[in-house]
Design brief:
Elements lengths: L59 H28 L1 H12 E6 L6 E2 L5 E13 L6 H4 L4 H13 L3 H8 L7 E7 L1 H19 L13 E10 L7 H4 L1 E2 L5 E3 H5 L1 H5 L3 E8 L2 E2 L5 E4 L6 E4 L3 H18 L3 E8 L5 E7 L18 H4 L9 H11 L7 E4 L2 E4 L2 E4 L7 E4 H6 L3 H8 L6 H14 L28 H4 L10 H12 L3 E3 L4 E5 L5 E3 L5 E3 L3 H16 L16 E11 L4 E13 L6 E8 L8 H4 L1 H14 L21
Parallel strand pairs: 2-11
Antiparallel strand pairs: 1-8, 2-3, 3-4, 3-5, 6-7, 8-9, 8-10, 11-19, 12-13, 12-24, 14-17, 15-16, 18-21, 19-20, 22-23, 23-24
């Protein structure tokens, strides 16, 4: 079969021109052109293409959408505006006010504490709180990676802080304020300022003069610091203040409200952390605290403190105290404790020594308490100073066998002799006459002990003061019925003991002891303290008789207090040596040695009481170690207060009697 020819492809010719249309829309046939020669026909030129028309959509939907969006946005703004202007206007205004205005507290100056002559015992001086802006110690601001560590190393020796602690405080970039140290002296702040100047010059000398001062973020705030010009002197009375400048112990705490005053406030507009000068400021000024004038005499306080400190050290005792009191007014002229502490440096203080042991220690007084038993016997009229009392070597009462501090043959003593020789057995026999039965005698003795102030606060209102321990007579044990008369089985504090002897010296009238003479307000006006309460305890006659009996303790060779004699003055006093209850063991261990008395005996002016707890070296009898302290302190006080020597001779009451058998 012959091969098939491929199908021929038609080459499209030029497009035909569109036929014109008639007015009614029909196509009209164009007139044929005249015939031409047989020459090849050229294709007719193509007419130019008409531009294609693009039809746009309607703009109305888009406009509606845009209008709706704008409406919603405007609605949000309107709602927010209404919330700001109407609903939350007050809260937002207050918030803006808080950010715009800065408020600072103006610390009130703390009042001084002075002695009776106006000599400052506690005062406030200018100081500075050292602060910092931690943001300025970040690498971005300081351009130093370890800026906190470098600054801390420079400041630590000046502030007495650990470098690591300071560096930690400086590494708090989210804060613009941190407290580095409180209550620094002006000298410390001046040293820091000198360092800042050195680094400021170094920064200016750096390349381009645009260096950063490493200590530029160290700042200060004015403050005050409590100082005690006399160091340990009267620290037990004064107490101390805490880091916030508030009283935390002693009179600083007891009288904190009067001393502290009232802080003020200042409020001013600020911008960028700086005060706007043109905006002005407003606030209330701080009201300084009142000055407190004490009854304490600084010189007598010094003498008492020196004497007790030396003896406590010599005897290797736990502690000791001396109280000096004006017998006619009840004013406390001295209250010394040993060991003491320096309130200027609490970090070095022993916590056990930071109180006022003379008011806070409760202990059994021993024989100094016998004067109250004798007061009851004389006042009740059951015996007189010359009443004969036969004192055996041992006395069996209840479930115990009682003895005196030394073994002896039978003593033939007067009642005066019982007190002079401090006989426990003689005191038991004498007080047994206070009632028909022992129970009645106990009740009578208890009533006198209470009137002398035993078992209740002294009236000073001192923080932490102990009222002592005195059980009601119906609760006295069998042994207490006989030990309480000679000072065992009850507890007192040193101020109570001193007050007992001041009561006798004052003619039998107890005057509540006082430590504060008055206050001086910010206006400079002095306001005396209220008069202390006075209570008649025993008659004037009994008090005078007791004073004469107490002279026998010191003046008679048979007495136990001969080491308390003062040339030129008649001295009345009483020794005491008691078994001591160890507070840690809860049982008797060691002794409490004491001496109490007043002078001049014929016209009493001053009472001195001394006690030493647990002497472990040398003598432990009260007359041996406390008698000399009494003498030293009393002698100094008499001279300081210009008390004239005695002009009369003592009564010389009999101490013993001869047995008629």
């Amino acid at each position: 079969m012959p091969p098939k020819e491929p199908p021929r492809r038609r080459v499209p010719g030029p497009a035909r021109p569109a036929r014109p249309r008639s007015s009614d829309g029909r196509q009209t046939r164009p007139a044929r052109p005249a015939p031409r020669s047989a020459a090849p026909r050229r294709p007719a030129p193509r007419p130019p293409a008409r531009p294609r028309t693009i039809r746009l959509g309607s703009p109305k939907p888009r406009l509606r959408l845009v209008s709706l969006g704008l409406t919603l946005v405007m609605l949000v703004f309107v709602v927010r505006l209404l919330q700001v202007q109407a609903v939350d206007a007050g809260a937002l205004a207050a918030k803006a006010e808080a950010h715009r205005y800065q408020e600072y507290t103006l610390s009130a100056d703390r009042g001084e504490i002075t002695d009776r002559s106006g000599i400052a015992l506690a005062a406030s001086v200018d100081a500075y709180d050292i602060t910092a802006d931690p943001k300025l110690f970040t690498p971005e601001e300081s351009r130093i990676q370890d800026a906190p560590e470098q600054a801390a190393a420079l400041l630590a020796p000046l502030l007495g802080k650990e470098p690591a602690d300071l560096a930690k405080k400086l590494r708090t970039p989210k804060s613009r304020y941190t407290l580095l140290a409180r209550k620094q002296t002006p000298q410390v702040w001046n040293q820091i300022k000198d360092l800042k100047k050195v680094y400021e010059k170094k920064a200016k000398r750096s390349e381009g003069g645009n260096g950063i001062n490493l200590l530029g973020g160290i700042l200060s705030e004015p403050s005050t610091k409590r100082v005690y010009p006399n160091g340990e002197l009267a620290a037990g009375i004064l107490g101390y203040v805490n880091a916030e400048g508030r009283g935390a112990g002693g009179l600083e705490s007891m009288l904190d409200k009067e001393l502290a005053g009232t802080d003020g406030k200042i409020r001013f507009a600020q911008s960028g952390g700086r005060q706007v000068p043109t905006a002005g400021s407003q606030g209330t000024p701080a009201v300084p605290g009142s000055d407190i004038e004490l009854t304490i005499d600084r010189d007598i306080q010094w003498a008492a403190q020196q004497a007790i400190t030396a003896q406590v050290k010599k005897s290797k005792a736990d502690r000791g105290y001396v109280i000096v009191q004006n017998t006619k007014t009840g004013e406390v002229l001295a209250m010394a404790n040993a060991p003491g502490f320096d309130p200027n440096d609490l970090s070095a203080a022993n916590a056990a020594s930071m109180g006022n042991a003379a008011l806070q220690d409760a202990y059994e007084p021993g024989s100094t308490s016998k004067v109250m038993s004798m007061a009851a016997v004389l006042e009740e009229g059951v015996a007189a100073p010359d009443t004969h009392v036969t004192v055996p070597n041992r006395l069996h009462r209840g479930d115990r066998l009682f003895k005196d501090d030394i073994d002896h043959r039978t003593w033939y003593l007067t009642l005066n002799g019982v007190l002079a020789k401090s006989s426990n057995i003689g005191t038991i026999l004498a007080t047994g006459q206070l009632g028909k039965t022992q129970a009645e005698a106990n009740q009578v003795l208890y009533s006198y002990l209470r009137k002398f102030g035993i078992g209740r606060p002294t009236g000073l209102g001192y923080p932490g003061e102990t009222p002592g321990i005195l059980a009601k007579p119906e609760k006295w044990s069998t042994s207490q019925q006989y030990t309480i008369p000679f000072g065992q089985g009850l507890s007192i504090n040193a101020m109570q003991a001193a007050s007992v002897y001041s009561t006798i010296a004052n003619g039998g009238v107890r005057i509540e002891p006082t430590l504060v003479r008055g206050t001086k307000g910010p206006d400079g006006r002095f306001t005396p303290a209220p008069a202390p309460e006075q209570t008649r305890v025993i008659s004037e006659k009994t008090a005078k008789t007791l004073a004469q009996m107490l002279e026998s303790v010191v003046g008679d060779e048979e007495g136990t207090g001969t080491r308390a004699r003062i040339p030129g003055y008649r001295v009345a006093g009483k020794t005491g040596t008691a078994n001591r209850v160890d507070p840690e063991l809860g049982r008797y261990k060691g002794y409490t040695s004491s001496f109490a008395g007043f002078a001049p005996a014929d016209d009493p002016q001053i009472t001195v009481y001394c006690a030493i707890q647990n002497p472990t070296k040398g003598d432990y009898f009260g007359g041996q170690i406390c008698g000399p302290i009494y003498k030293k302190v009393m002698e100094f006080a008499l001279k300081t207060l210009h008390v004239p020597p005695t002009g009369s001779e003592p009564a010389r009451m009999p101490v013993t009697f001869k047995d008629s058998e």
